[in-house]
Design a protein that fits this description.
The protein has 3 domains: 90 residues, Immunoglobulin-like, CATH 2.60.40.1120; 154 residues, OmpA-like domain (60s Ribosomal Protein L30, Chain: A, 2-Layer Sandwich), CATH 3.30.1330.60; 126 residues, Beta Barrel (Cathepsin D, subunit A, domain 1). The strands form 5 sheets. The protein has a 6-stranded mixed beta barrel with strand order 16-17-21-18-20-19. Strands 1, 4, 7 and 8 form a 4-stranded mixed beta sheet that branches. A 4-stranded antiparallel beta sheet has the order 3-2-5-6, with no helix packed on it. It is built from 7 helices and 23 strands. The protein is an alpha+beta fold.
């Protein structure tokens, strides 16, 4: 008699992955499926695993790539004694952060995609072809230096030129692509050591205007080069192809936000509004006279399981996670990679994980003023207005 079982874990968070579909296809033509439980455990009993048969095993889960780490093989061929076969998987989540593409360079103050840089989009094309449920935001960034048109307008047109190439020349469904120009508003944070014009910039460096101005003149242009970039962000992985194709022009353009207020639920001087933590929508409470940001334990655990947070985002790294059950310790400090409210985005934001907190996120008013500027609450119009 033979059985097959194992555990499925996330390669980034090291959390067990529940609800993953595990499929086995036997060399005898049989096929069976099961799902992992809350511990990430799956099993096939003796009625499914038989003698002299080789089984190809695959794991599928929304939000995860299907690659060599999600596939495996076990066999009972040649076995003469009972055996419980074991096969664990550590699967790779689809990245939540933007992925920088190979260089796409433009003529000064121009946005036409030059032929010699079209190859830089082929890797993204292959990803979209292999994963037809993905919806992508294609982002373009400029450096901070002024030009005759605004940097927002220029970057928007450059992003659109890349989208049009993917749609018109490579046949990607326009409904799977969103073009977005960010101008100079999001300085690049280096995920690894990078050499530009012979100068090494170290991992973790944030290329803010202040940082660049502090560099010697011969290094400033190299830093500007790194800020000028095109990248993509995976927005969703649940796209279902439609039966009709929308107009490319209308699908590829994204309006740039210019509002100086955000809608809010305001009552008795207290406000509840929407923010974006690591690009994910989340409601927050504005807490008067507070200097801290607090995220509820339940919300932090949800983000950890969904790989919106990773172990590396915590101040104590692996020590912030209980090894036995994968839970977050109470009071752990986690750093949001980005926090956006309205048009403004800040990076590397410290928050405290609090057990028993009912609201998903609480932002102290003093922190809000320091990072986003002064504000006023308009209870009649139900708006949080930036001053």
């Amino acid at each position: 008699m033979f059985t097959l079982s194992g555990f499925v874990k996330d390669s980034v968070t090291r959390q067990f992955v529940d609800g993953a579909t595990v499929t086995i296809i036997g060399s005898d033509g049989t096929s069976y499926k099961t799902k992992t439980d809350i511990r990430g455990y799956y099993s096939f009993d003796k009625t499914k695993i038989v003698i002299n048969t080789t089984y190809d095993i695959s794991v599928q889960k929304s939000g995860y790539y299907e690659n060599e780490n999600s596939k495996g093989r076990e066999t009972t061929v040649g076995l003469t004694e009972n055996k419980d076969l074991k096969h664990d998987f550590i699967i790779n989540p689809i990245p939540k952060d933007p992925v920088v593409l190979p260089d796409i360079l433009y003529e000064l103050a121009k946005w036409d995609l030059l032929p010699q840089y079209q190859d830089s989009l082929l890797g993204l094309y292959q990803i979209m072809k292999d994963n037809p449920t993905l919806v992508i935001e294609l982002r373009s960034h400029t450096d901070v230096r002024p030009i005759p048109m605004t940097n927002d307008t220029l970057s928007q047109r450059r992003a659109e030129s890349c989208v049009l190439f993917l749609v018109d020349s490579l046949g990607i469904d326009p409904q799977r692509l969103v073009a977005k120009g960010y101008g100079e508003r999001i300085p690049r944070k280096l995920e690894r050591d990078i050499v530009s014009r012979g100068i090494t910039f170290t991992k973790g460096t944030v290329l803010t205007p202040e940082y660049i101005k502090s560099l010697p003149k011969n290094q400033q242009e190299a830093a500007h080069d790194l800020n000028r970039r095109t990248e993509f962000l995976i927005l969703r992985d649940d796209y279902v192809p439609s039966t009709t194709v929308s107009d490319v022009g209308s699908q590829g353009r994204v309006q740039i936000m210019t509002q100086k207020y955000i809608p809010a639920e305001i009552k008795e001087g207290k406000a509840k509004a929407t923010c974006y933590v690591n690009s994910k929508t989340l409601k927050f409470i504005l807490e008067p006279n507070s200097d801290t940001i607090k995220i509820s334990y339940d919300q932090a655990m949800r983000y950890l399981k969904e790989a919106i947070f990773t172990v590396g985002d915590f101040d104590l790294k692996e020590s912030a996670i209980n090894e036995k059950d994968g839970t977050i310790i109470d009071g752990a400090i986690v750093f949001f990679r980005t926090l956006q409210i309205g048009d403004e985005m800040i990076e590397n934001v410290e928050a405290k994980v609090v057990k028993g907190q009912k609201d998903a996120l609480i932002i102290g008013s003093n922190v809000f003023i320091e990072e986003f500027g002064k504000y006023r609450l308009d209870e009649k119009e139900q708006k949080l207005i930036f001053e």
